[in-house]
Design a protein that fits this description.
Layout (H helix, E strand, L loop, with lengths): L3 H13 L6 H8 L3 H13 L4 E4 L5 E4 L12 H17 L8 H12 L2 H13 L14 H13 L3 E6 L5 E14 L2 E8 L4 E6 L3 E6 L12 H11 L4 E9 L1 H5 L7 E3 L14 E9 L5 H8 L3 E5 L1 H19 L2
Helix pairs in contact: 1-3, 2-3, 4-5, 10-11
Length: 329
């Protein structure tokens, strides 16, 4: 069981993470009673840590604004996790507009680490190689990202100034359900209040975000990631493709994931193995078709192209090329 001193330090870490923490929440995290939490708070105050008491229904404790944290103390594992997280975020393109932020954060962490730990971590980062290329995606503005996140948490409408992929600018009121990081970009999903329909917006295309008065109720089961992938699969593109593929859901999803295609899944009848192969309908939209023929070949499953005829011609042409290559001595 942790000693009281350890719990007091844990309490300080919880408060340092930001926001107001209720007594019940702190008691649950620390594994103690509410009165014990109050005693630990008194100990922090005796150490000149400015803990404020917040009254009301959502009251609790928080650190006073502007409180400067004590010197950073990280274990070897914690320091490694932080630095690798900064490196991975920068390479994936999941950074804010200030691209140097992760580099300056890394430098600050190194400065406060014991020299022997800093040297070992630097050695690791110098020896580390990646098989993928660093992300070069446009990053969202940090203030926009935080404003939208606050609107998501408190279910408050947010006004955004948005520029679409064709360069058209508009101002919209968004009921944001959640923020999703996908393929090196940041997205927000929610309802466009003006048209009353779900929409997905790239955060790097939002020039300004401003929280509005009022609140809204998010629909039940509004999983932001699922909505984003569904929006990608049903987006307006040049070609509409309909296929029938003989296989299992797992086999088809290995080459045509949720963000690429809609799959007409089924509920197996009583006694049927859900892994049984059968004909399944697949629908997707694409701006180009040349990539799809090799994907269908890699599935190595029987398939029927219902539309468009152009895809059928591409598959036949690919099959002819592969046959000619295979016959070469």
């Amino acid at each position: 069981m942790p000693r009281p001193t350890g719990r007091v330090l844990t309490l300080l870490e919880l408060l340092q993470s930001g926001g107001t923490r209720t007594v019940a929440e702190l008691a649950d995290r620390l594994g103690v009673e509410g009165r014990t939490v109050r005693r630990y708070v008194d100990q922090l105050i005796d150490l000149d840590v400015p803990v404020e008491s917040v009254r009301g229904r959502y009251g609790g404790y928080r650190l006073a604004p502007g409180y400067r944290l004590p010197p950073l103390m990280l274990s070897d594992d914690e320091a490694l996790a932080v630095l690798l997280g900064l490196v991975a975020g920068r390479r994936a393109g999941l950074t804010t507009t200030e691209r140097t932020a992760s580099e300056t954060a890394s430098a600050k962490i190194r400065r406060v680490l014991p020299k022997h730990i800093a040297r070992r971590l630097d050695t690791l980062l110098e020896a580390l190689a990646f098989t993928d290329q660093p992300g070069h995606s446009d990053a969202p503005d940090a203030e926009v990202l935080l404003t939208v996140a606050d609107a998501v948490r408190h279910r408050r409408p947010v006004s955004i100034r948005y520029t679409d992929r064709d360069g058209r600018r508009s101002e919209r009121t968004l009921h944001a359900y959640g923020i999703v990081a996908h393929a090196g970009r940041w997205y927000v999903t929610g309802e466009d209040a003006r048209i009353g329909a779900d929409r997905t917006f790239r955060l790097d295309r939002i020039a300004d975000a401003r929280t509005l008065p009022g609140s809204f109720e998010a629909p039940v089961g509004a999983d932001p990631a699922d909505r984003l992938l569904s929006a990608f699969a049903t987006a307006e593109y040049r070609h509409e493709v309909t296929l029938r593929i003989h296989g299992t859901v797992e086999q088809i999803r290995a080459r045509l994931p949720v963000g690429v295609a809609n799959l007409e899944e089924y509920a197996p009848v009583a006694g049927e193995d859900p892994a049984t192969e059968r004909w399944l309908r697949v629908e997707l939209r694409a701006e180009r078709l040349d990539w799809l023929a090799p994907v269908l070949a890699s599935l190595d499953r029987p398939f029927v192209i219902e539309r468009p005829d152009e895809l059928r011609d591409l598959v036949v042409a690919l099959a002819d090329r592969l046959t000619s290559y295979a016959r070469q001595a």
